[in-house]
Write a structure and sequence with these properties.
Blueprint (H helix, E strand, L loop, with lengths): L2 H7 L40 H13 L4 E5 L2 H9 L7 E5 L4 H14 L2 E5 L4 H7 L4 E7 L11 H11 L2 E5 L4 H4 L9 E5 L13 E5 L2 H14 L5 H11 L2 H21 L5 E3 L9 H7 L6 E5 L3 H10 L4 E2 L9 E3 L11 H6 L6 E5 L5 H12 L4
Parallel strand pairs: 2-3, 2-4, 4-5, 5-6, 10-11
Antiparallel strand pairs: 1-7, 6-7, 8-9, 9-12, 11-12
């Protein structure tokens, strides 16, 4: 089945009791057993719930994976991933990664005994030099948040297989509709489902998808034992949302490309970061690796005051954390999503006070351009 058909039908079965076309919400913490230790497949919702089972099958199908694991947030999915490692292990991570990921790895995991090295994963030689005999995992965010820098997944997968290192790709920014990391050789795909998969800014969830039966056993055990799993209602919401993922992503992409071209021509804008623009330094890689360029972009103004005035003046773009919803959002990464990252480290990968990040929604594109035009007039 092709993508949109999988998105609608995978994991979604007609309820045999009522004929309901939507997966029921099994809002139950426990399940009656037929005898001691004899169940109908479920005993306690932390270990498994029928609504979550349907969702995990759907999520796996979106990434052309055999297995999917739903967690209570994107960071909970990252935490579940870390349970595959042990004290003394090392991981290499994309420099410029989401601030919450950086905070978790450096302030939660390093005191526990897991060392993280941050390198520009767009540069294969930097990754090769960073890998040591203690490296167990390479964590790649592509495009990076918010600088939209790309990493060559296929080349990194080849290197990781040579070194016996797991390759994990955060595919949140593009969604499975526009990028397929497993097909390019990645071992695991991570999503903050809160973003494009959910798409409506009304739930929080994370997920891991992969093709390994061994990892399936390990991660299912982590879900049951650590307990950071979503409730059945959130699973129902996400099952509803993935049905329209392809349609939404096409509109996000169409609008973002229109906005990027407008910003590139505006005199108040000093730089635009969007892989769909021919001026993006990795546009050729984007064409090879992605099926579309998504709805995320960032742009730079002359200074912080200009960025602040634009963010405050926008009327359709709301100033808020998060991304990937149907409504358009503007974010000041230095003051918001990446505030926990030290200034020197932020600036080393180009993230300055003058940069704004846009999550371009599915409103009318001309309204979005007009909104940006009136706000940018203040910074000209």
């Amino acid at each position: 089945m092709r993508f949109n058909t999988r998105a609608i039908h995978a994991g979604n079965q007609v309820d045999p009791l009522t004929g309901a076309i939507c997966q029921p919400i099994f809002q139950s913490s426990t399940f009656v057993q037929e005898d001691i230790g004899v169940t109908r497949g479920y005993d306690y919702s932390r270990a498994g719930n029928p609504t979550r089972t349907s969702l995990e099958a759907n999520l796996a199908a979106l990434e052309n994976a055999r297995h999917g694991h739903a967690f209570s947030s994107g960071l909970a999915a990252l935490q579940g991933l870390m349970h595959l490692l042990r004290q003394g292990d090392e991981l290499v991570c994309s420099a410029g990664v989401y601030g919450g990921t950086w905070r978790f790895l450096t302030q939660v995991m390093e005191p526990w005994g897991l060392r993280s090295r941050f390198v520009d994963t767009a540069e294969l030689d930097q990754v090769r030099a960073a890998l040591t005999p203690a490296t167990r995992l390479l964590y790649v965010e592509t495009p990076t948040n918010p600088m939209m820098r790309l990493s060559d997944i296929r080349a990194l997968a080849t290197l990781c297989k040579e070194r016996g290192v797991l390759l994990v790709v955060d595919n949140t920014f593009l969604s499975p509709y526009f990028q397929s990391p497993l097909a390019l050789g990645a071992d695991i795909v991570l999503h903050s489902c809160t973003k494009y998969l959910g798409g409506h800014s009304d739930m929080i969830m994370g997920a891991l998808m992969h093709n390994s039966d061994e990892l399936q056993t390990k991660l299912a055990f982590v879900q049951k034992s650590a307990g950071a799993v979503p409730g059945p209602f959130e699973c129902f919401l996400l099952l509803r949302s993935t049905k329209t993922l392809g349609v939404r992503m096409e509109r996000h992409f169409e609008n973002a490309l229109r906005v990027a071209h407008f910003l590139e021509e505006h005199p108040a804008v000093t730089a635009v970061h969007y892989p769909g623009l021919p001026t993006h330094p990795q546009h050729d890689l984007a064409q090879r690796q992605m099926q579309g360029y998504g709805g995320m972009l960032s742009f730079e103004l002359k200074d912080y005051e200009a960025a602040r005035s634009v963010a405050r003046a926008l009327k359709i773009f709301s100033l808020a954390e998060s991304l990937g919803g149907v409504e358009s959002l503007v974010n000041h990464p230095v003051g918001m999503t990446h505030a926990s990252v030290p200034r020197a480290q932020r600036e080393s990968y180009g993230l300055t006070d003058a940069l704004l990040r846009l999550s371009v929604g599915i409103e009318d594109a001309q309204d979005l351009v007009d909104d940006l035009a009136q706000a940018l007039a203040l910074a000209t």
